[in-house]
Amino acid sequence: MERPLVAVVGPTGSGKSSLSLALAASLDGEIVNCDSLQVYRWFNIGTAKLSESERLGVPHHLIDVLNPEEVFTAGEYARRAAAVIKGISARGKLPIVAGGTGFYLKALLDGLSPAPQRDEALRRRLSRRSPEFLHRLLRRWDPEAAGRIHFNDRNKLVRALEVCLLARRPVSDVQRQKRQPLEGFRVLQIGLDPPRAELRNVIDTRVQEMFASGLVEEVRGILARGCTGEEKPFEAIGYRQALGVVRGTLSVAEAIESAQIETRQYAKRQMTWFRREKDVRWLAGFGSRPETRQTGVRLVHDWEKHFTPNT
Question: Pick from 97, 141, 186, 295: most CB atoms within 10 A?
Answer without folding.
Answer: 97
